[in-house]
């Protein structure tokens, strides 16, 4: 009889523990896209999106499990159910919406070329003829050049990188003449030494809503309306309670809050 009572109590304890266990949400992200995602000297994942992502997961009452990989692997991993969501400065575009669903807009930022001061490079395509521009693979920046300024007609060469870290190194060494990226990551690189080495934003920001989308958002699998709704509510929460703005100010001298 004691064994039966003990077994029953054990079973009740396990059921109670399971009912209070938080849901785990595996979020695919990057480890080399400062200041949004990067690893510090100890190997710990840091960055603006990691900070705000953890705040959102807390409000959703779920446990975040961050999974790092290359940018071009994120959507395939999401579709293969290796992760549940993507938070990695992924622009919400019509092309990507064919494969995944997106939350409400999370951040916005202009797109810029970065080049050596005095190089003559600007946002005008003619200034890039015969030169090489670095872009991250599978990014909207790569798509812009492939679709709007193909080498065959523009004379602009494009070099694709798995990580922008490598592109910045090639820019500094002179192996490429410009990098095309969001103004946020460009600002981070320039403020950490790029500006001192003689580089700056080149010309005006480049706009193309059809390519770049309205901003970045969190991607989830097609049809995962529950998780999408949870992230929509969490994003609205951090935007409205001031926590997004507080973290934003520590990383950038300008706002990336959607208007």
UniProtKB/TrEMBL annotation:
User: Its domain of life?
Assistant: Bacteria
Does the keyword Signal feature in the UniProt annotation? yes
Q: According to the UniProt entry, where is the signal peptide? A: 1-21
What region holds the Solute-binding protein family 3/N-terminal domain? Answer: 24-255
Establish whether keyword Signal is in the entry. Answer: yes
The record's CDD domains line, in alphabetical order, gives: PBP2_HisJ_LAO_like
Keywords from UniProt, A to Z, are:
Signal
Q: What is this protein called?
A: Transporter substrate-binding domain-containing protein
Q: Which lineage?
A: Bacteria, Pseudomonadati, Pseudomonadota, Betaproteobacteria, Neisseriales
């Amino acid at each position: 009889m004691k064994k039966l009572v003990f077994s029953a109590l054990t079973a009740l304890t396990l059921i109670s523990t399971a009912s209070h266990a938080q849901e785990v949400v595996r979020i695919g992200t990057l480890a080399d896209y400062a200041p949004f995602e990067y690893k510090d000297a100890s190997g710990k994942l840091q960055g603006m999106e990691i900070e705000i992502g953890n705040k959102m997961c807390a409000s959703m009452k779920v446990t975040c499990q961050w999974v790092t990989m290359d940018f071009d692997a994120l959507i395939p991993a999401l579709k293969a159910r290796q992760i549940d969501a993507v938070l990695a400065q992924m622009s919400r575009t019509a092309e990507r919406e064919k494969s995944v669903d997106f939350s409400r807009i999370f951040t916005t930022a202009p797109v810029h070329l970065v080049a050596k001061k005095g190089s003559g490079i600007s946002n005008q395509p003619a200034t890039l003829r015969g030169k090489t521009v670095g872009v991250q693979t599978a990014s909207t920046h790569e798509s812009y050049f492939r679709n709007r300024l193909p080498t065959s007609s523009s004379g602009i060469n494009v070099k694709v990188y798995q990580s922008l870290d490598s592109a910045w190194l090639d820019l500094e060494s002179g192996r490429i003449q410009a990098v095309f990226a969001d103004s946020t990551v460009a600002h981070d690189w320039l403020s950490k030494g790029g500006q001192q080495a003689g580089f700056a934003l080149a010309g005006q920001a480049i706009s193309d809503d059809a390519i770049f989308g309205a901003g970045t958002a969190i991607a989830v699998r097609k049809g995962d309306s529950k998780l999408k709704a949870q992230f929509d509510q969490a994003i609205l929460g951090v935007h409205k309670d001031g926590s997004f703005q507080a973290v934003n100010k520590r990383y950038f001298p300008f706002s990336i809050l959607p208007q």
